[in-house]
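Below is a filled-in request sheet from our internal design queue. Each sheet records the structural input a requester submitted and the sequence that came back. We keep these sheets so that new team members can see what a complete request looks like end to end.

REQUESTER: design group, bay 2
PRIORITY: normal
MODE: inverse folding
CHAIN LENGTH: 213
BACKBONE (tokenized):
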């Protein structure tokens, strides 16, 4: 996608989309570039058009695992949680081992404090596919925390911290759990670590995006 020249990438993909209007992959690639440029409305409009065309052609199974993941992520980042959930669930139904989507949706639910039992089942499925993934371990710990299961939360989050040392959000999560366990001195140490490692203007933690399609 020519990451150092996104405008050229857009022009090339727009031309390709005009020449091959029925090509899902080209339009998906263009929607992804729009999302990377924070052109969220353009990205959502194009993602939606690709999805609707595929549905009309009874070809939803021809859309890739990565399509559903990026479409769902863009919906969530735009604040459309219901649409994000629907897209993720569609992708997971088609690709049951889509561990990035399983984790992303589980974390999204945990952040909002909803569907926690299902979130736990989904992140466990993600960890079945990638057991040492620090972001997935963080999600597991955060789901446990939201369920008030503080000891398993602490265990999972400490594993996450070992897998991703220096991650400020994981350190903050550990601090939250330690505070809930009434261990203020340890919590303060992790809170300081989180503050030290957080870059200015750092966005809230979410599972890392996948490679571009």
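RETURNED SEQUENCE:
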């Amino acid at each position: 996608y020519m990451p150092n020249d996104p405008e050229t990438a857009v022009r090339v993909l727009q031309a390709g989309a005009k020449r091959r209007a029925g090509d899902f992959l080209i339009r998906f690639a263009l929607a992804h570039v729009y999302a990377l440029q924070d052109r969220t409305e353009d990205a959502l409009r194009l993602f939606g058009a690709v999805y609707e065309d595929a549905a009309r052609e009874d070809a939803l199974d021809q859309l890739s695992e990565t399509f559903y993941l990026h479409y769902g992520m863009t919906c969530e980042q735009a604040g459309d949680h219901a649409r994000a959930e629907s897209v993720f669930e569609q992708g997971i139904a088609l690709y049951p081992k889509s561990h990035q989507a399983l984790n992303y949706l589980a974390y999204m639910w945990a952040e909002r404090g909803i569907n926690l039992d299902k979130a736990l089942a989904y992140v466990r499925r993600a960890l079945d596919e990638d057991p040492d993934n620090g972001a997935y371990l963080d999600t597991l710990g955060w789901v446990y925390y939201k369920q008030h299961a503080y000891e398993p939360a602490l265990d999972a989050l400490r594993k996450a911290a070992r897998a991703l040392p220096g991650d400020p959000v994981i350190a903050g999560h550990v601090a939250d759990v330690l505070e809930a366990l009434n261990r203020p001195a340890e919590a303060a140490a992790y809170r300081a670590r989180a503050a030290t490692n957080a870059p200015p203007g750092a966005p809230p933690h979410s599972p890392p995006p996948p490679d571009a399609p």
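SHEET NOTES:
- Residues 66 and 213 are 7 Å apart (CA to CA).
- Residues 40-56 form the longest helix (17 residues).
FILED BY: M.R.
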